[in-house]
Amino acid sequence: xxxxxxxxxxxxxxxxxxxxxxxxxxxxxxxxxxxxxxxxxxxxxxxxxxxxxxxxxxxxxxxxxxxxxxxxxxxxxxxxxxxxxxxxxxxxxxxxxxxxxxxxxxxxxxxxxxxxxxxxxxxxxxxxxxxxxxxxxxxxxxxxxxxxxxxxxxx
Length: 155
Fold this sequence. Notes:
2 strands; mainly alpha; 7 helices; two-stranded antiparallel sheet
Protein backbone atom coordinates (compact mmCIF):
# COMPACT_ATOMS: atom_id res chain seq x y z
CA UNK A 1 0.00 0.00 0.00
CA UNK A 2 2.76 2.42 0.97
CA UNK A 3 4.73 1.48 -2.15
CA UNK A 4 1.74 2.22 -4.39
CA UNK A 5 1.28 5.67 -2.84
CA UNK A 6 4.99 6.36 -3.26
CA UNK A 7 4.86 5.35 -6.95
CA UNK A 8 1.84 7.60 -7.55
CA UNK A 9 3.56 10.55 -5.84
CA UNK A 10 6.74 10.06 -7.86
CA UNK A 11 4.69 9.83 -11.08
CA UNK A 12 2.81 13.04 -10.23
CA UNK A 13 6.06 14.83 -9.42
CA UNK A 14 7.54 13.67 -12.72
CA UNK A 15 4.49 14.83 -14.68
CA UNK A 16 4.58 18.22 -12.93
CA UNK A 17 8.29 18.60 -13.71
CA UNK A 18 7.78 17.72 -17.40
CA UNK A 19 4.86 20.17 -17.65
CA UNK A 20 6.92 22.95 -16.04
CA UNK A 21 9.83 22.21 -18.40
CA UNK A 22 7.51 22.33 -21.44
CA UNK A 23 6.01 25.67 -20.41
CA UNK A 24 9.52 27.06 -19.89
CA UNK A 25 10.31 26.35 -23.56
CA UNK A 26 7.89 28.90 -24.97
CA UNK A 27 9.29 32.10 -26.50
CA UNK A 28 10.51 34.73 -24.09
CA UNK A 29 9.77 37.89 -26.07
CA UNK A 30 6.82 39.17 -28.05
CA UNK A 31 9.03 39.38 -31.14
CA UNK A 32 9.81 35.65 -30.91
CA UNK A 33 6.13 34.81 -30.57
CA UNK A 34 5.19 36.99 -33.54
CA UNK A 35 7.96 35.50 -35.71
CA UNK A 36 6.72 32.01 -34.87
CA UNK A 37 3.20 33.13 -35.81
CA UNK A 38 4.51 34.34 -39.23
CA UNK A 39 3.63 37.97 -38.38
CA UNK A 40 6.97 39.45 -39.39
CA UNK A 41 6.06 43.14 -39.76
CA UNK A 42 4.48 43.12 -36.30
CA UNK A 43 7.54 41.31 -34.91
CA UNK A 44 9.77 44.02 -36.32
CA UNK A 45 7.64 46.70 -34.65
CA UNK A 46 7.51 44.78 -31.35
CA UNK A 47 11.26 44.09 -31.14
CA UNK A 48 13.15 46.32 -28.76
CA UNK A 49 15.82 48.56 -30.34
CA UNK A 50 18.61 46.69 -28.54
CA UNK A 51 17.22 43.30 -29.65
CA UNK A 52 19.24 43.19 -32.87
CA UNK A 53 18.92 39.46 -33.53
CA UNK A 54 15.10 39.39 -33.55
CA UNK A 55 14.96 42.60 -35.55
CA UNK A 56 17.34 41.07 -38.10
CA UNK A 57 15.32 37.85 -38.29
CA UNK A 58 12.11 39.78 -38.92
CA UNK A 59 13.80 41.94 -41.57
CA UNK A 60 15.21 38.86 -43.28
CA UNK A 61 11.82 37.14 -43.30
CA UNK A 62 10.18 40.28 -44.72
CA UNK A 63 12.77 40.30 -47.51
CA UNK A 64 14.77 43.39 -46.49
CA UNK A 65 18.11 41.59 -46.60
CA UNK A 66 20.40 44.67 -46.62
CA UNK A 67 18.77 46.00 -43.46
CA UNK A 68 18.91 42.51 -41.93
CA UNK A 69 22.66 42.26 -42.59
CA UNK A 70 23.19 45.62 -40.88
CA UNK A 71 21.20 44.43 -37.83
CA UNK A 72 23.06 41.10 -37.75
CA UNK A 73 26.36 43.03 -37.65
CA UNK A 74 25.12 44.85 -34.53
CA UNK A 75 24.08 41.61 -32.79
CA UNK A 76 26.53 39.87 -30.47
CA UNK A 77 24.97 36.43 -30.97
CA UNK A 78 26.89 33.62 -32.73
CA UNK A 79 23.78 32.91 -34.82
CA UNK A 80 24.22 36.31 -36.46
CA UNK A 81 27.00 34.93 -38.69
CA UNK A 82 24.60 32.34 -40.09
CA UNK A 83 21.97 35.03 -40.64
CA UNK A 84 24.48 37.18 -42.54
CA UNK A 85 25.43 34.21 -44.71
CA UNK A 86 21.80 33.38 -45.50
CA UNK A 87 20.98 37.00 -46.29
CA UNK A 88 23.98 37.30 -48.61
CA UNK A 89 22.93 34.09 -50.35
CA UNK A 90 19.38 35.35 -50.81
CA UNK A 91 20.73 38.57 -52.30
CA UNK A 92 22.98 36.53 -54.60
CA UNK A 93 26.05 38.61 -53.86
CA UNK A 94 29.36 37.92 -52.15
CA UNK A 95 28.67 34.18 -52.21
CA UNK A 96 32.25 33.32 -51.26
CA UNK A 97 31.88 35.24 -48.00
CA UNK A 98 28.49 33.61 -47.39
CA UNK A 99 29.99 30.16 -47.95
CA UNK A 100 32.93 30.89 -45.65
CA UNK A 101 30.67 32.22 -42.88
CA UNK A 102 28.37 29.20 -43.13
CA UNK A 103 31.28 26.74 -43.10
CA UNK A 104 32.76 28.47 -40.04
CA UNK A 105 29.39 28.34 -38.30
CA UNK A 106 28.95 24.65 -39.06
CA UNK A 107 32.51 23.85 -38.00
CA UNK A 108 32.04 25.73 -34.73
CA UNK A 109 28.88 23.81 -33.86
CA UNK A 110 29.99 20.32 -34.92
CA UNK A 111 33.53 20.11 -33.53
CA UNK A 112 33.80 16.79 -31.69
CA UNK A 113 34.95 16.97 -28.11
CA UNK A 114 37.42 14.39 -26.85
CA UNK A 115 36.46 12.20 -23.95
CA UNK A 116 39.74 11.67 -22.08
CA UNK A 117 38.17 10.28 -18.92
CA UNK A 118 36.71 7.13 -20.47
CA UNK A 119 37.98 3.97 -18.82
CA UNK A 120 40.19 1.88 -21.09
CA UNK A 121 37.72 -0.99 -21.18
CA UNK A 122 35.09 1.28 -22.82
CA UNK A 123 37.28 2.23 -25.79
CA UNK A 124 35.95 -0.61 -27.93
CA UNK A 125 32.57 -2.10 -28.66
CA UNK A 126 32.48 -5.76 -29.69
CA UNK A 127 28.92 -5.20 -30.96
CA UNK A 128 29.99 -2.51 -33.44
CA UNK A 129 28.50 -3.20 -36.91
CA UNK A 130 31.69 -2.11 -38.74
CA UNK A 131 34.65 -2.32 -36.39
CA UNK A 132 37.45 0.05 -37.36
CA UNK A 133 40.14 2.19 -35.79
CA UNK A 134 38.70 5.68 -35.29
CA UNK A 135 39.29 8.47 -32.77
CA UNK A 136 36.76 6.73 -30.51
CA UNK A 137 38.20 3.26 -31.17
CA UNK A 138 41.97 3.60 -30.83
CA UNK A 139 44.34 1.50 -32.94
CA UNK A 140 45.31 -0.55 -29.87
CA UNK A 141 41.76 -1.92 -29.87
CA UNK A 142 41.65 -2.75 -33.58
CA UNK A 143 43.49 -5.62 -35.20
CA UNK A 144 43.46 -7.37 -38.54
CA UNK A 145 42.88 -11.14 -38.22
CA UNK A 146 43.77 -13.79 -40.82
CA UNK A 147 40.54 -13.36 -42.80
CA UNK A 148 41.54 -9.76 -43.67
CA UNK A 149 38.63 -7.97 -41.97
CA UNK A 150 39.30 -5.35 -39.34
CA UNK A 151 38.11 -6.46 -35.91
CA UNK A 152 37.69 -4.56 -32.68
CA UNK A 153 38.35 -6.31 -29.42
CA UNK A 154 37.99 -5.24 -25.82
CA UNK A 155 40.93 -3.99 -23.81
